[in-house]
Model the fold of this input.
Amino acid sequence: MTTVFTGSSLNDDDRRDLVYRGDVFVYSATSASAELVLFARELIEEAFGGLDPETAQHEMDVERFAGLLADLKPRFIHHPQCKKLLPLILEEVGCSLDKTYFDVPRLRTSTSHDYLTSGISYAFHPHRDCWYSAPFNQINWWMPIYPVVPENVMAFHTRYFDQPVANGSTRYDYAKWNATSRHTAARHIHSDSREQPKPEEEVELDPQVRIVPEAGGFMLFSGAHLHSTVPNTSGRTRFSIDFRTVHIDDVRARRGAVNVDAACTGTTLRDFRRCADLAPMPEELALEYEAEALTRARQASEPLRS
Ligand SMILES: [Fe+2]
Done:
């Protein structure tokens, strides 16, 4: 069962426990999240010149649109303003700045009617972030920049939270992906040949849960949830921000969601920085997680013994 909490005043320790069990938390815009969204809008609107960013796809050829995003997205991701505002948002909803680590926020787009669904505007098939070397205590945060509707958000396939899905994570290694595929996103305009971990059995997409936060509002959920980009039929491009956090005590204690089916190698832990001072994740933890992932992958590939 997945419970959706709105505007909860639970403390962060209790909230994380529930997130690791599959619950989802939704919050209205805070003053820092509203500021982040306004900042994102400024960058987006400047990039699109006089065009309305949500409908510009109807007036531009797709190569130009992809080129524009390829320039815009990294500018947002690495902007110092984001590193300043993200910890403020986390603090506003009760996260400890000394114990919480975050990675850079991504600017995501979902275009309408399959205009651009690969590369720089990839439409995510059903996946768990844990298939992509995320730790099982990763919490995902998702925030729309402009108002969204059920036809252009993301979906949770909640019944699979504790149910395995055959998948290709066994062929995914985070270090290899970084070295070979990550930086080629903008080249994939009409199709995406980069191998990504996908379900390798029929997944029942329905029933599914779609949450529609207000612009600048946000939700947080376990990276172990099976989730996907919904086919955008809204007529408008969706712009959203997502980022991830981990709590260092949970990383050390191996406290998090249960692994039901991930067998990838590598870890994304080195991407995380401490909110208080941007200190990196201790290297020994990343090394331990890599070693544990390797053991898991070997066990998963061992033939079943009778
Ligand atoms: Fe994801």
